[in-house]
Amino acid sequence: MLENTLRNRLYQVARRFRQRLYWWNVAVIALVIAIVAALMLPSVTSGQMDAKSTATVLFAAAVVMSLIALVITARSYRNPARIAKAVETKYPTLQQRLITAVSVSDNPELRSGYLQQQVIREACDHSQQYAWTETVPRGQVLLSRLSGIGAVALMLGVLGIMVFETEPAQALLANNPHELLNDVTVSPGDTEVERGTNLLVTARFNGEFESLVPSEGELRVVLRDGSESRLPMKQNLLDPVLGGLVVSVGESFGYQVLTPNWASPMYSVEVFEYPSLVRSDASIRYPSYTKIDDKTIEDTRRVSAVEGTTLVWKFLLNKPVASATLLNQQGESVALNLNDDGATAESNEMVLKDSQRYTLELIDDQGRANKYPPELIVRTLPNQQPKLKTTAAGDVRVSPLEELTVTAESEDDFGIEKMGLTYTFAGNTQEVVLASDVGRTRKLSVEHLIEFESLKAEPDQLLTYYFWAEDVGPDGNPRRTQGDMYFAEVRPFEEIFREGDPPPGGQPSQPSENEQEAEKVAQSQKEIIGATWRVLRDGITSEFKSDVNLIAEAQHEQIEALDTLAENLQDEESLQYVSVARDAMETAVEELAAAESDDLEAHGRALAAEQLSYEGLLKLRAREFEVTRSQQQSQSSSSSSSAQQRQQQLNDLELEQDENRYETENQAQQNSAEEQQERETRQVLSRLRELAKRQEDINEQVAQLQSALEMAEDEKAKEEIERQLKRLRDQQQEMLREIDELDERMQSPENQSSMQEESEQLAQTRENVREASEALQQNDASKALSAGKRAERELESMRDEFRERAAGQFNDAVREMRDAASELDERQQDLSEQLQQQQNEPSPGLRAGTEQKELDQQIQSQRDRLRDLQEKMQETVEQAETAEPLLAESLYDSFRQTQQRQVDSRLEETSELLRNGFGEEAMQAETQANEGIRELKEGLQKAADSVLGDESEALRRAASELEQLSRDLEEEIREANAGESGQSNPSEPRERSGEGGQQADRQQESRQQEGGPQRGEQSGEGQQQDGPPGDPQSGETPSGQRSPGELRDGQSQRGGDQRGDGQPGEGEPTGSRSGENENEQAEPTAQSGQNPGEGQGQSTRQSSEEPNGQMQRGTESRNSSASRSRNAANGPSSSPISGDGFREWTDQLRDVEEMVDDPEIRSRAARIRDRARDVRADLIRHAKAPQWDMVEEMIAKPLRELQRDVQEEWLRRSAEKNALVPIDRDPVPSEYSDAVRRYYERLGSGQ
């Protein structure tokens, strides 16, 4: 009885479990069916599926799954022990009685015992006191039941919608298929599309048919040859629209939209092309004087040629056109001649006079113009005058028996016809031809010996001479370029130098007053001769008349000064000389008056008269003078230039070897020219490096596509490969344009002489690139790869040549050895730490053997790297013994010290001791090896610094350049944003930069540290610049010669006391050149107001601060780069991204890449430059303003971050280099520590 009661109670609990489980199963089944029905509803609505059949199937599936769930649930919870355990969990007060009772009741043998019956009775009593059915709460059962009923209701609702809502629409679709066509809009219908573009076809269901949109459809495409294909069309989200895409339309076709229940009419698509340029060739016929053969440059849009060259453009178009014209920058149009087929055009012969940019405008017979008119650039190079430079010439005083050797150098871009010397003596002019028919751009040195004895020279006579060179001008006629005029004064043969007694105070004796005045007049006359010569040499210019008037006024003042001098003279012979000189001056004035009417012959007669007057003035000089040597000789100052010359001659008598007349000449301008040439070399190197890398990448992709093309099995794969080849062809075409740009740079006047051979080599490389491009156009991957490989090898060869030229022969080798030594030291430090850790924490068992084996392998690898480094060092020492002896010595010292320390032996010993278990001894040997490697690293670092320079200096210059680049770019972005918004916010770029005041302060401090001393020196130089703005080298005008501009300041500076503009410093020969003319381009035009004497201190500072190697890669001054960038930002046309300043801006960014060695910095700079180039290309291609937000995010922001990182790295390295170090780092020995402490205590107490 008790057992039945207990089982009944447990059955009630199990039934609640089964109810809860069943209703949850019903809820899940109903929800799944409802979701499936909802997903199938669009297909049913569109008629693709029958509503009743689908609903019936889903409902039947729900019923079947519910029955299955019922069966499974009915068989669940049949184990009384499991139910009893659940009840015990709910009611712990049972204290295992129920579980015991269930187990006893299942065993008939144990059921009859008293204790067993008592346990069963107590369990039954507990079931009467507590509701065991609450083991499964009533709320859970009710919730499961409601969930199941709700899910079933939802399922029935969805099925009802499927049946009752879609059936009318399906009936309408079946009964009225033609009416549906009027309510579907197919776009674009009949249309025209450009070849190569994509076509989107859509079918929109309107009105009451919006709910009948099928989820999928087909787009039937029928080509003109009858072949057809079908493309899928899909519904876009829930819009009543089907859409399909035809990719890259290549020919005309028809199309039709198909669905399971209807089809659209057939529509036609016609394909057209905008007229465009396929290829442009340039036929060039050079002037005869260039001696260059005619040539045709294929597939180019840039042409550089000398003025007078005849150019004919030939264009291959993609289709016949109705008209083709070239439009230049001035808006003038040049009509092109169309051939019969209309697909080729040719220009008339164009004689190059000025550089031009043309835009090719095409219009076809439908009136369509080319979308992106290409730009053709014609750069006209000037036919430069010969570069003439005197190497050993100047104003001298010679004896009547002396032989004077004068030399000069000259070079020309297209060859020198003649080169010679003209001298005038005793009224006779003699012309000497020293060379003729010199090859193109060859540097020619000539020398001539003037024998005064054969000229029967007499004291106080004057010989003037100058060098000249003839080439062929643009008009085809000979053109003469004349150099500076120099003076050779014949001194008395019996001129005596004797030493006299010094005056009181040790000061030098002063010449007489008449001698000083005569010297002043002679010196001023010498300057007038120089100015007259300059005007005569320059020919008729806009300033000719004003210059002649100034010279005439100066000559009048000379006559007045000579009259004043004559009043103080009593010697008859001297008065006679004055009379001769005065008559010659008056003649000069008359001839100058006649020359005002642009008469160069009269100007030449005036020059002869001026020379005659100067010769008369020479006779006024005293023939004998005393020279006093005082203790302050180094600080003395002669009162006349003639005294300086005599003093110089006296010093020459005491020299045992000839000295260089120009050893004190200011070299700042030559350094500036060298820096500019180095910069050009680096720019070319950077472009060659980039082109070589890009060609290598293209070749790799072509090789991969060639293999893929051979393995392609179907036409679809081949078409995809051909599309990739077309993209590579576009890249190859872009390379072709950049090679043309590089060639234009190499042919510029400043690079023509130094890069002529490389330019010719680049022309051959260009031909290979062009062949590769044509092969890619024909899908001939094999031929393209062959031509591309040739171009790659040639570019790499040129890159290596320029790298040696730009960085030195051993820079790369030293840099590699330095990096290898640094890596060797880092690995040795890691090895030391591992060895120390192994000794401090030994590992048991097999693990210890594995770690020891790994250490042994690392030591062997370390030995291999050390041997490779030593072999490289030895090889470099042998190569550098002759070219770089200091580098060879430094490397050899490091190599020898490493050998003496036996670093390799110590590493071998460490490995051997580790294998034998001698850990402590191995650590001692490793410590010795570690010290040797550290010393090797320090030695190579010193050697690298001697060759490459201090890297912190390069970082400083790079940070300066980046700061300016960022400022220019931010200025353009700010102006562009202001133009769009109608207002300008000057602080916006700075706010975007996120750098804050600290970064600005660091940048300002950097500029002050760099620019402070230079500004001071430049200020000092500026005070000495008295010459005219038009005189590029007034500060180096030799004494005795002034330009007409200098004469505007009057004659207040006449005399030997003047040390201002045009007066050489002490120790410089007093030349009489008429300034630095524009033809002598061998002497650059920077730093004009600084003569050799005045600039000596600055030259010393510059030479002591100028770094080598790597530091020289940034030697362009900050001021010049800043001015370049400011000029680039002055107007919209000079903006760095959208204006003409792009090339200069990217050049400066290339300079940054070349200044630093850090690969990460160089890579980041290159990425910024590539992004800028992409933006620029899009700007040119689409002719619309850039997206400035994208420019800010992709270019400006990374540029600021790069500038900040470079600045921080420079500050860090500068701090490490200039860190304060204690004078005494050694600790006080322990035995003396007490005594030292007591000493400081007494010292502090004042005892």
From TrEMBL:
It comes from the Bacteria. This is Uncharacterized membrane protein YtjA (UPF0391 family). Residues 738-747, 789-806, 813-830, 850-875, 953-968, 1045-1060, 1141-1157 have a biased composition (Basic and acidic residues). Residues 496-523, 629-684, 738-885, 897-1157 are annotated as: Disordered. It comes from Aporhodopirellula rubra. Residues 552-598 form a coiled coil. Signal peptide: none annotated. The chain crosses the membrane at residues 21-41, 53-72, 146-164. Residues 630-649, 665-674, 1009-1036, 1117-1136 have a biased composition (Low complexity). The keyword Transmembrane applies. Residues 1082-1114 have a biased composition (Polar residues). Keywords: Coiled coil, Membrane, Transmembrane, Transmembrane helix.
